[in-house]
Amino acid sequence: MSTIERTAAGTAGRGLVVPLTLTIICGCVISALSFGLRSTFGMFNEPLSSTLGWGREIFAISIAIQNLGWGIGQPIAGALSDKFGPARVLVGGGLIYALGMVLMSYAGSPLGVHMTAGIMVGLGMSGCSFVTVLGALGRMVSAEQRSWVMGLGSASGSLGQFLVVPLGQAFISAYGWQTALILLGSLAATMPVLAASFTGAGSVAAAQAATERPLSFGAALRQAFGNGSYRLLVIGFGACGFQLAFITVDLPPYLADAGISPTIAAWAIALIGLFNIAGSYAAGVLGARFAKKKLLSVLYVVRASSIALFVLLPLTTTTIFAFAVIMGLFWLAAVPLTSGIVASLFGTRYLSTLFGIAFLSHQIGSFLGVLCGGWLYAATGSYVPTWWVCAILSLISALINLPIDEQQPAPAPAPAR
User: In sequence order, what DSSP letters do the residues of 184-228 get, joined into one string?
Assistant: First the structure.
């Protein structure tokens, strides 16, 4: 993409000129940091629970709260980003995220971990997540480039997962889990600095949206919830959240129960991130050429098949890494496809809000996935039942996405005079 410059009004009549290419790069780094840091939380489950003498379900509840907080906060962050521009939302989210990670290292009670790892990190994520970044970038580029840039932003989140998870495990091994949280929280504190590149993005997005059919905020919400395809998309996205959260949080202890080294578990999660760089980018490119709903259905069928094989085959380094590679190719690939369908249905004026609502369904699924993993483990002593729930939900989601109509609905006729 060629460098495009935009100007935002500044103080004393001076403008701030920021290349769009630079904004895209900074947005991708924010996406990498926010998602990569979140992906490390599964590595803290065992050491934190062992040190404090808790069962694993305590930490699972904190991460469930985190996912729910992220989901509830995301539509609000999206609405604020649509109205005031993304820069302030990204700054505020990054600060809360960083503070939550640092304070988590001092939490010595379940309530303290629920408040920090759960509520603070969850709300912080809603402000500085890849969802906020994608919504902002998707409004700043042309329709032809939108699927591509959303794939790039999603792929960056996976790059962060690949880079940050091994780093987090190295910090835990070298310094202990408490110091590791402080170091990772310091890394999160760089996101507000990067968010400065989005200054003036709101005016550019507004100019882009001005070329679309005028629609008020309330009318956009009524149109979205009255659209059967949007409702199906939102419901199907919940299965994605269930799977991703369960695997991120419970894959390390699942492998530990089988005698697998924590280093192997960390690299498995990192490999998911590495291969999803290609998977998310490919989803963005393919989404511009083929029906996104069909790509989503294929994605969910492949996930279901890979989960079933992972449970049925013996756990070896080869099968673990093979599972990580296959899941990685389809890990965040649903994000550019889902957000692309939202943009196709309703335009970009309220893209951050409407995709944020869809993402709430994703995070409700994440909340249930983490809770289900923790509760079923406490009841049965095994994570296997939850793996099968993941596979079944994936097949259901594949079917749900097929009837979706990706075309923007025709405008309502003007009232008779």
Answer: HHHHHTTHHHHGGGGTTHHHHHHHHHTTSPP--HHHHHHHHHT-H
Q: Are 407 and 344 a contacting pair, CB within 8 Å?
A: yes
* Rounded Cα gap, residues 178 and 116, in angstroms: 13
Residues in a beta bridge with 291: none
Widest Cα–Cα separation across the chain: 75
Could you give the residue ranges of the DSSP H alpha helices within 5-55? Answer: 20-38, 41-52
Q: Which residues pair with 19 in a beta bridge?
A: 5
pLDDT digits (tens, 9 = 90+) for 246-296: 998 889 889 989 999 888 988 898 888 889 888 888 888 898 888 999 999
**9 phi/psi in degrees, rounded to 5:** -60, 135
Of 412, 382, 31, the closest CA to residue 191 belongs to: 31
d(CA 164, CA 310): 25
Confidence band for 323, pLDDT divided at 50, 70 and 90:
very high
**Structural contact between residues 169 and 43, judged by C-beta atoms closer than 8 angstroms:** yes
CB 191 within 8 A of CB 30: yes
List the end-to-end C-alpha distance of the chain, in Å, as a whole number: 47
Count other Cβ atoms within 10 Å, centred on residue 5.
10
At 131 the pLDDT is 80
- Single out the residue of 275, 238, 276 nearest to residue 394, CA to CA: 238
Compute the distance between CA of residue 244 and CA of residue 252 in angstroms, rounded to an integer: 13
The vertex-314 CA angle with 313 and 315, nearest 5°, equals 115
CA distance 154 to 277: 8
How many Cβ atoms sit within 10 Å of the Cβ of residue 29?
18
> Is 347 within 8 Å of 212 (Cβ atoms)?
yes
pLDDT at 8: 38
Instruction: Tell me the two tokens of residue 34.
Output: 């926010």
- The mean-pLDDT minimum among 1-15, 58-72, 106-120, 144-158 falls in 1-15
Q: What is the pTM of this model?
A: 0.74
Nearest to 351 by CA among 259, 224, 264: 224
Q: Which residues contact 3 (CB under 8 A, 6 or more apart)?
A: 19, 20, 21
Read off the pLDDT of residues 122-172 as tens digits, 9 standing for 90 and up: 999 999 988 888 888 887 777 777 778 878 887 888 788 888 988 998 999
